[in-house]
Amino acid sequence: MSQNNKGTPRIVVVGAGIVGACCAAYLVREGYSVTMLEAEEPAAGASRGNAGALSPGSCIPLSMPGMLKDVPRWLMDRNGPLVIRPSYFLQSLPWLLRFLAAGQPERIPAIVDALHALHSPVFDSYKPILEAAGAQSLVRQSGCIVVYRSRKGLDSSMGGWKMRQDRGITFEILDRSGIRDLVPALADKFECAVLQPEHGYVTNPHSLVLRIVEYVTGSGGTLRNGRVVGIEQHDRAVSVRLENGERLEADRVIVAAGAWSKPLVKALGLSVPLETQRGYHLHLPSPGIELPLPVSFVDAKFYATPMEHGIRLAGTVEFARPSAEPDYARARQLGTLASDWLPGLQLTGATEWMGRRPCLPDSLPVIGPLPSDNRILLAFGHGHNGMTSAPTTGRLIADLIAGRKPFIDIAPYRPDRF
Ligand SMILES: Cc1cc2nc3c(=O)[nH]c(=O)nc-3n(C[C@H](O)[C@H](O)[C@H](O)COP(=O)(O)OP(=O)(O)OC[C@H]3O[C@@H](n4cnc5c(N)ncnc54)[C@H](O)[C@@H]3O)c2cc1C
Question: Residue 91 domain-assigned?
Fold first, then answer.
């Protein structure tokens, strides 16, 4: 690998969300010269306002056999957990068909294994970064509870829980009194729940990204503001071209631009079916109740997470044109639902947010070198679990750049699998 005038390989990371920040952190730890290029500001995208759940046991892909039967019911409800804006339906159809194809029974075990490999080391993978950044207090391993309105709901998802169990993931089924003892703030409207004791959460996802970026810049790395519009391949180096015409030369480039990554790699000859799934949050600064751990309202597809500054309700899925205005009624709907399920919840001072999840049809990210040029590494498409999978992605990218065998098999995430 070529080097800068201090003899250190130069690495450019495009995007300062949680994925770019974790890659940069693992690389500065190893002594590389790292420059982060961020179009807006660190955590400007999905990493800012997500639900913050850290889910080592989350390994069930979004597309599962039998899911199709639920889709019409979801789509009929404009406040439901899944919305496809009518004006975007035809454009999203090819992706949706690939998504359904990924849910064929014979494809599921390999996807579950790959998600498990990526998610299960989450706390080990965050540990060195949190210690280096002095940010340990932002991560808690509190457990997480998934609540079901009826036993029938739990029974119908038992296949997924069994797949987790087969991979050594622990959980406990709670009845009404178990739920009451663990989360007294919940209304008596849930017949059963699953407690995942090994799960946890980030108390402030925005702060976590900022703290990791501060560690990078405090350890010799650089953060620069600039939108990358192209990556150019030369014989001896690679360069990134910024919107203002400037070029920055590097030995390696990591594309970690979340939902905005697709055009950057398309221009390099690789077509990746990256789609955006929007999600919303309603953040309640004075919720008036307390939660000891994140609560996943699985039927409505959102979380209530106790955070540093209140409770955050976050989740749901919306497909829309990239330039479409956010529909904040979806965020407010989370407040309406949660008020029913968490009596006494105060919505005063609530703030709304929309974020774009970078999603691939098989629920796995792309992590690995561009097939035609291993100086360019791809790290995007972390979908619904990027806060969980980012630190392990950082470790894998550091392994690849150092020329080490990655600590887990990265074949399932290879960029040319589509
Ligand atoms: C409502 C919601 C709830 C969620 N809840 C959870 C959860 O509980 N647990 C979990 O694990 N995950 C959750 N997620 C998913 C998680 O937030 C994402 O997977 C993760 O944040 C993706 O991180 P990223 O760094 O890839 O992308 P982003 O955070 O979007 O970062 C990409 C960055 O790249 C920058 N950028 C874009 N284009 C360029 C360019 N051309 N040049 C330079 N910079 C560029 C952007 O400005 C941005 O800062 C949730 C997401 C949403 C929306």
Answer: no
Would residue 97 count as lying in a domain?
Answer: no
Ligand 1 mutation pick, 12, 38, 199, 333, max ligand atoms within 8 A of CB: 38
Please indicate, yes or no, whether residues 162 and 226 belong to a single structural domain of this protein.
no
Cβ count near 238 (within 10 Å): 19
Q: Residue 75 — very low, low, confident or very high, per pLDDT cuts 50/70/90?
A: confident
Residue 120 alpha carbon to ligand 1 centre in Å: 20
**Residue 300: which of 196, 171, 153 has the closest Cα?**
153
Q: How far is CA 250 from CA 6, 256, 301, 397, in A?
A: 14, 16, 42, 16
**Whether the CB of 412 sits within 6 Å of ligand 1:** no
- Cβ–ligand 1 distance for 360 under 6 Å, the answer no
Q: What is the total residue count of the chain? A: 418
Q: Is 395 part of a structural domain of the chain?
A: yes
pLDDT in tens, 137-168: 999 999 999 999 999 999 999 999 999 999 99
* Substitution site in 13, 40, 260 for ligand 1 pocket (most atoms within 8 Å of beta carbon): 260
**Cα 161 from Cα 242, distance rounded (Å):** 46
Helix/strand/coil (H/E/C) assignment for every residue in 131-155: HHHCCHHHEECCCEEEEECCHHHHH
Cα of 43 to ligand 1 centre, how many Å?
A: 7
* Residue 71: its H or E element: helix 71-76
The reply to whether 95 falls in a domain is: no
Question: Pocket of ligand 1, candidates 312, 387, 397: which has the most ligand atoms within 8 Å of its Cβ, to mutate?
Answer: 387
Q: What is the pLDDT of residues 95-141, one digit of tens each?
A: 999 999 999 999 999 999 999 999 999 999 999 999 999 999 999 99
* Binding site membership of 81 for ligand 1 (Cβ less than 6 Å): no
Answer whether 348's CB lies under 8 Å from 339's CB. no
Report long-range pairs for 245-250 (Cβ below 8 Å, ≥24 apart).
248/12, 248/35, 248/37, 248/224, 249/10, 250/10, 250/11, 250/12, 250/35
For atom 16 of ligand 1, which residue has the closest CA? 386
Domain ranges, residue 395: 1-59+106-137+200-273+360-418
